[in-house]
Amino acid sequence: MRNMSHDIDEIIQKMNPDSHEFAQRQAFLEIGETDCQLLHEVHAKLAKRQHAFVSTFYDHLSQFPPLREFLDSPEVLARLKQTQAAYFERLTNGEYGDDYVRNRLRVGVMHQRIGLEPQWYIGAYRKYLSGLMSVLRDLFQDEPDKFFPTYDALLKIVCFDMSLALDTYIHSDRHEILRLKNYAEQIVGSMPAGLMVIDRDGRIRTVNHAIRDMFSLDKHGIPEGKRFSQLLSNQLLNECIEQGLAQQDYQNNLVITLHADASRLRYLRCKISHALLEEQNLLLLLVEDITERMQARAQLYESEERFRAAFGQAAVGLGEVCPDGRWLRVNRKLQEIIGYSEQELLQLSIRELTLPEDRHLDQVELSRLLRGETQNYSTEKRYIHKNGTPVWVKVTVAPMQRGNGQASFITVIEDIMQRKRFESELQRLAHHDPLTSLPNRNLMKDRLDQAVAHVSRVGRHVAVMFIDLDRFKNINDSLGHSAGDEVIVEVARRLARSVRDGDTVARLGGDEFVIVLSDVAREGDVALFAQKILDSLFVPIVIQGEELSLGGSIGISLYPKDGKDGVTLLKNADAAMYRAKALGRNNYQFYAQEMNAKAFERLKVEGGLRHALERNEFVLHYQPQMDLASGRMVGVEALLRWQPPGTTAISPADFIPIAEESGLIVPIGEWVLRTACAQHVAWKETGFPEVRMAVNLSARQFRQKGLEQMIARVLQETGCKATCLELEITESVIMDDPESATETLKKLSDMGVQLSIDDFGTGYSSLSYLKRFPIHLLKIDRSFVSDITTDPDDAAIVKGIIALAQSMKLKIIAEGVETTEQLEFLRKQQCDYMQGYYFSKPRLPAQLQEFMAKWVESLPPSVKNDLQSVVSCK
Which of 224, 221, 193, 191 is nearest to 207 (CA)? Predict the structure, then answer.
């Protein structure tokens, strides 16, 4: 309420009521002192009847619906009656100065603010005057001559009030017109489109800011009042404006260009029309800057051209498809992929091009795409080439909106035929051996599992045969790996030819094969089949002009006796195969329960060996070698022992073969050599006799590349002399490849290392090769020495070996001497050296040093003095 009162006061202040002007208005209405006096005299009498008069007045107003809206509320009606009574009361009090004027203006503004139209306002005054006439007649019954002067005075004041009320309406209308004019000017001024109003003489009446900027009008000064042609330089636009001035119904739309700067054009869309203002026919020029739109259109055109070029020349197939699957457009690559021309494709649908088996692939995903559940999808399927062959493609589909608002799909089609071929080949390689094309381990396991599942239902057997070729490594080493590959391929062919349909021949790698006999009635049938395999392998193969006879070791396990699953059957067949090899090779063995225990023990030993070095579980024991003639010590042999913590020592016979097969013998052998050489130097520094240190070389060590370099490095790093080192190589190792062995032995001999053949007599040495080998010593195997006093054959062999060595000027040493009788026999045959428990068991370094000291002390003085001249290894 306070805000409305404040607003009304502001409006009255803006009306700026002038006391002089209102005095003139009263004078014009002939309002004088007499009038004021007459009204003042009747004022008190009228006040007594005011209440009834006001009620009658509002009853009359309430009869009209437009006025009734203001009078619906009883509270509002009561307040209006009170206000009206005050208004009427002041109307006749005889005071009509500035306060009266402001009061009446305030009432007028309030009525205008609440929406009371002027006609109702004037009608209310008429009702007031009419009703007051009868009241005054009654009041002046006794003074009839005062009736007309008093009523005339009242009429004058009412007219004055009405003029004041009309002033408020007129002021309000003027204010609203000004507000609307300002609003319109602000809109026109802030319009992004330019506006110019031109009169019929061609002169500019109005311009807005936008058109000023578009045509740079400000540089010409104030444009209003100037002729348009003075400011607008575009000839086409000026000609159209001239036509518009000449024709009253002229309208036109045109696009003109202006130079925004030296390098850029500005595009303007101009609309010329007529408007009637203040009875003048004016020309309106509306100008819209469409430069960005034109540039965007040009860019869109360029983009569409680039799209067409990219679409047509894309390296993948592209096509647009309508929802029913018909092609709308296709590119060149898609035509190449499926062999149809564009015209032919536009007559076909995707369904017609898709292989029938693959048509379901699109249905679910396309439905999800149409429902908006996904933005795109990809699938791999086969289209039908024009020549009828299936073509593998990867199709990616995404929705798009065409310019006409219709939906369509953009499809990207990639030719994946080559990838599918690669995948097929990879799939084949993943399940087949690349050399023989036989199933590999993975496929074989799958087929074995299937075979087990099948026979478990029918109560029959599955046989697993694990085949390992005998001495295949010799073929690779002697003839090369290409020859070895030829042998593997031929073996694979023979095995595949031997089995039935439904059986599986697989290559696990190297020279290992597995045959799965999927449905076997009796164990005897498996044995016959195994012998058939061995016979087929034994048939000679000609490789590189060489005729080769093969053999194989076969291990067999049977379901369900030897295992309930494929893994167990394979493991047990493998164990049986190792048993066949241990029994001389080229035979077959059925699995037995104890084989697993041996295989487990072997695995356990091999696992321990892999960590024995780093855990320092190996130790060396040393056994003296004595000169039989003088009784002096001439050397020691380093013997490897393995003592895992918390368990008993493991015999060399148990772990050396496993180390040899697994390759662990190479690092172990280097450790033995290094430790023995370092011990030799340590003994020398403590005054121990400088005798030869004998170290065994394993077969794998002897064949390894860089053997000579390794030995030279160990000698240099430990400080041991080469002449103090004796390397023992078994007879069978040397004779396995005599030519290569001769070369290796020569290199070692040239270094100064002493060489001996260990276990001599157990192999098949050729005397011609033996003569060529740069060796210094032959070592008689303990198997011959143990029975030389009881077995004439062993005695004869030992005599022959000693005689052979003497004839070749080689030293001879017998190992395993344990009795006096054996010693005397060897001394009688003039054997040079002996080694065995007769003199000393193998001992730890400190124990050996202590033993030798005690032994020397126990000798007679004459013998003791003679022993001081110990043979040196210099």
Answer: 224
53 Cβ partners below 8 Å, 6+ apart? 88, 131, 132, 135
Cα 11 from Cα 26, distance rounded (Å)? 23
H/E run at residue 631: none
pLDDT digits (tens, 9 = 90+) for 745-769: 899 999 999 999 887 766 555 555 6
For tokens 């009255």, name the residue. Answer: 12
What is residue 762's predicted lDDT score, i.e. its pLDDT?
63
Q: Give 794's Cβ-side CA count (13 Å radius).
A: 16
Amino acid at 667: P
What average pLDDT does this structure show over 786-801?
89
Tokens 């590189």 — which residue? Answer: 544
The one-letter amino acid code at 699 reads A
What is the DSSP code string of 805-821? HHHTT-EEEEE---SHH
Q: At what angle do helices 481-498 and 523-538 cross, to 10 degrees?
A: 140
> For 643, how many CA atoms within 13 A lie in the half-sphere containing its CB?
7
Please choose, from the candidates 449, 537, 428, 461, the residue with its C-alpha nearest in 3D space to the C-alpha of residue 493. 537
Residue 252 pairs with which residues in a beta bridge? 272
Instruction: Please compute the mean of the pLDDT values over residues 378-396 and round it to a whole number.
Output: 90
Q: How far apart are CA 161 and CA 167, in angstroms?
A: 10
Asked if residue 738 has a cis previous peptide bond (ω within 30° of 0), the answer is no
What is the C-alpha to C-alpha distance for residues 244 and 285, in angstroms, rounded to an integer? 10
Residue 846, Cα to own-chain centre: how many angstroms?
64
Token duo for residue 791: 């077995």
Q: What is the pLDDT of residue 594?
A: 64
Angle between helix axes 652-662 and 665-685 (nearest 10 degrees) is 120
Judge contact between 238 and 311, C-beta under 8 A.
Answer: no
Residue 302, token pair as written in the block: 């360029």
CA distances from 648 to 372, 620, 844 (A): 75, 16, 17
- 581 Cβ contact partners less than 8 Å away, ≥ 6 residues apart: 468, 470, 553
| Three-class DSSP category at 339 | coil
Chain-centroid distance of CA 214 in Å reads 54
Percent of the chain at pLDDT exceeding 70? 90
Residue 637 near residue 777, CB atoms below 8 Å: no
Residue 214 CB neighbours (<10 A): 19
Confidence of residue 870 (pLDDT cuts 50, 70, 90): very low
Q: How confident is the model at residue 703 (pLDDT cuts 50, 70, 90)?
A: confident
pTM exceeds 0.85, yes or no: no
pLDDT surpasses 80 at 777? yes
- DSSP for 655-707 reads HHHHHHHHTTHHHHHHHHHHHHHHHHHHHHHTT----EEEEEE-HHHHHSTTH
Cα(556)–Cα(521) distance, integer angstroms: 15
Which of 807, 801, 852 has the alpha carbon at shortest distance from 825?
A: 801
At 292, which helix (H) or strand (E)?
helix 291-313
324's enclosing H/E stretch is: none
Partnered with residue 559 across adjacent β-strands are: 462
Distance in angstroms (rounded) separating the CA atoms of residues 491 and 472: 12
| CB-CB contact of 382 with 401 (8 Å) | no
Q: pLDDT band at residue 522, thresholds of 50, 70 and 90?
A: confident
Inter-residue contact 663 to 700 (CB < 8 Å) = yes
- Which pLDDT band, with edges at 50, 70 and 90, does 736 fall under? confident
3-state secondary structure of 409: strand
Is the bond preceding residue 560 a cis peptide, omega within 30 degrees? yes
- Give the Å distances, CA to CA, from 181 to 187, 193, 282: 10, 19, 18
CA dihedral 211, 216, 220, 226 (to 10 degrees): -20
Interatomic CA distance for residues 660 and 730, integer angstroms: 14
Q: What is the mean pLDDT of the chain?
A: 83
Give the C-alpha separation, 299 to 36, whole Å: 84
